[in-house]
């Protein structure tokens, strides 16, 4: 049985960029572009009306910028994953977007295959970061000893056992957004970019063991 296409909302103030992204997914049965928005305010309205799975969000736009839109999407209860797609990877862009609740952060020079993989990863609720962004977050969040907190270790243990972000949140009585935040901190502390690598690195460092139960 074929999975339904991932529903995409494209948000960018440049029509050429929106057209290029739409064309990139045209004819690919794995994706359906359900709408386009030229600013954050339009994005919030369309997201509520169209229920996309993933929102490709630019950051610097008129009327309402991307970070403000991400916060507003969360406030009004939109459950779509937000994948930032922007030209900028400075601290003043990256950190606020991640803290606002973005599931991923990519730069516009990302090639099609990487973008497709990122969208599918984001649709599953898993964080995805471009290498330069991961490096920047590593420098910001890294502690002197890179020690995982007790809560981060609890989250990673559940992930190692195969739990999704939502399942981990339910078991720990915290929000899914909090689990995602913990996972981003884990990635940066362990110097990895995804869940599988985080689990593998935790075993390598002895933070997780096969007999941990």
Automatic annotation (TrEMBL):
<dbReference type="InterPro" id="IPR000792">
    <property type="entry name" value="Tscrpt_reg_LuxR_C"/>
</dbReference>
<dbReference type="GO" id="GO:0000160">
    <property type="term" value="P:phosphorelay signal transduction system"/>
</dbReference>
<dbReference type="InterPro" id="IPR039420">
    <property type="entry name" value="WalR-like"/>
</dbReference>
<dbReference type="GO" id="GO:0003677">
    <property type="term" value="F:DNA binding"/>
</dbReference>
<dbReference type="InterPro" id="IPR011006">
    <property type="entry name" value="CheY-like_superfamily"/>
</dbReference>
<dbReference type="InterPro" id="IPR058245">
    <property type="entry name" value="NreC/VraR/RcsB-like_REC"/>
</dbReference>
<feature type="domain" description="Response regulatory">
    <location>
        <begin position="7"/>
        <end position="123"/>
    </location>
</feature>
<dbReference type="GO" id="GO:0006355">
    <property type="term" value="P:regulation of DNA-templated transcription"/>
</dbReference>
<keyword id="KW-0597">Phosphoprotein</keyword>
<dbReference type="InterPro" id="IPR016032">
    <property type="entry name" value="Sig_transdc_resp-reg_C-effctor"/>
</dbReference>
<dbReference type="Pfam" id="PF00072">
    <property type="entry name" value="Response_reg"/>
</dbReference>
<feature type="domain" description="HTH luxR-type">
    <location>
        <begin position="141"/>
        <end position="206"/>
    </location>
</feature>
<keyword id="KW-0238">DNA-binding</keyword>
<keyword id="KW-0805">Transcription regulation</keyword>
<protein>
    <submittedName>
        <fullName>LuxR family two component transcriptional regulator</fullName>
    </submittedName>
</protein>
<feature type="modified residue" description="4-aspartylphosphate">
    <location>
        <position position="58"/>
    </location>
</feature>
<dbReference type="InterPro" id="IPR001789">
    <property type="entry name" value="Sig_transdc_resp-reg_receiver"/>
</dbReference>
<keyword id="KW-0804">Transcription</keyword>
<dbReference type="Pfam" id="PF00196">
    <property type="entry name" value="GerE"/>
</dbReference>
